[in-house]
Input
Amino acid sequence: MALFAVVYAYPAGSEGPRDTHRPAHRAFLSELADRGLVLVSGPLSNPAGEGGLLIFRAASAEEALAHTEQDPFRLQGLVENVTVHEWKAAVGPLAESFGA
Output
């Protein structure tokens, strides 16, 4: 199984609805983490806007993306763009735990 960085981009003005649906979003991701599919996730903030980063263990980019389809944020239209990148942990204290 490979690692994939899934990056969410949130639409402008979606802070309030995200706050409303965040508990369900985190419960969904926690269930995926309990199954060993999500290794870590959390919010991103940058000058271009807000988003989220999720690191998945999956057989393919398509499989990693498919795991996000029932995310309450996606179901509620709170993610305007999703990108998936295969990622190889190489250096640092966590690299070995990610299978480097």
Remarks:
- The chain has a mean pLDDT of 93.
- The beta strands are 2-9, 38-46, 49-58, 81-87.
- The helical segments are 15-34, 61-66, 72-75.
